[in-house]
Amino acid sequence: MQDDIMTLRVVRRDIQTNEIAVIDLAAESGADLPAFEAGAHIDIHLDEGLVRQYSLSNPPGERHRYRLGVLLDPASRGGSKAVHERLHEGVQVKVGVPRNLFPLDGSAPHSLLVGGGIGITPMIAMAYELRDAGRSFELHYCCRGRDKAAFIDELESAFGDALVMHFDDEEAAQRLDIKALLGAQPADTHLYVCGPTGFMDWVIGAAGQAEWPHSRVHSEYFSAEVDTSGAAFEVEAVASGVTVQVEEGMSIAQALRAAGVKVNVSCEEGVCGTCICEVLEGTPDHRDHFLSEEEKEDNDQIAVCCSRAKSARLVIDL
């Protein structure tokens, strides 16, 4: 067994709102699990080549379990469907150790947490960590309707006045006015947002219009549309000694794998960072949601599952 892969058992499964599976994973022996911080996720190995990332939503101080909330997505590429069909109580599953690509900034005087739909899951862990540390925060939960919102009883009990809920099908006055919310924040507030792509783009766009610096806007995409349009280009994978032509409609990863090169991919949507490679020559056309704007400007890394090239040729360290 790899050091970073564990076999855990589903010890509890609760279906909320008819479309969200809340799942607790624990060690067969009952031993403590590796610690995690708010914002962390784990890789769930559902099948050969089918690995998906799910945020941990339980209080970070807990070591006896990892809790996930998984929405059954009608447009699922296999991940959420597999979770709902296979991960029943008693089932074993291979799980990666927690990784945190969405950490809280400990210097923030106030934190604004905004979760849309199932994007509430990492926000719950963040809210617990902030509450338990006595730090200032507010948690906004946006959903299509109260009947579509999971975790409500827990959130109301745990976070009281720090929690504000917004439902699309209720009166207009309680819906999220993102411009007003951002404008009412104390100086140097840090914003954290997670949810569907359109929702996140809306919130992040409003922060940009309000001239919030990138350093105070934190986000994590669950999924994203992959755009592989554009002219063909050449990619040389130096370490593998392979050069391929990447045609329109094809990803770099697909072209390399077709040539026999092993490429580590997971989400295949440019959100998890698994496939990031070093760029040695050429100019990437960044289409991922993982690298920061500053990292993209450096042009020395690329997400090969989705990004393309502005130059006719790229040389990567793979």
UniProtKB/TrEMBL annotation:
PANTHER family: CARNITINE MONOOXYGENASE REDUCTASE SUBUNIT, NADH OXIDOREDUCTASE HCR. This is Vanillate O-demethylase oxidoreductase. One of its GO terms (biological process) is methylation. PROSITE patterns: 2FE2S_FER_1, 2FE2S_FER_2, FAD_FR. InterPro entries: 2Fe-2S_ferredoxin-like_sf, 2Fe-2S_ferredoxin-type, 2Fe2S_fd_BS, Beta-grasp_dom_sf, DmmA-like_N, FAD-bd_FR_type, FNR_nucleotide-bd, MRET. Residues 233-318 form the 2Fe-2S ferredoxin-type domain. Keywords: 2Fe-2S, Flavoprotein, FMN, Iron, Iron-sulfur, Metal-binding, Methyltransferase, Oxidoreductase, Transferase. It comes from Halomonas campaniensis.
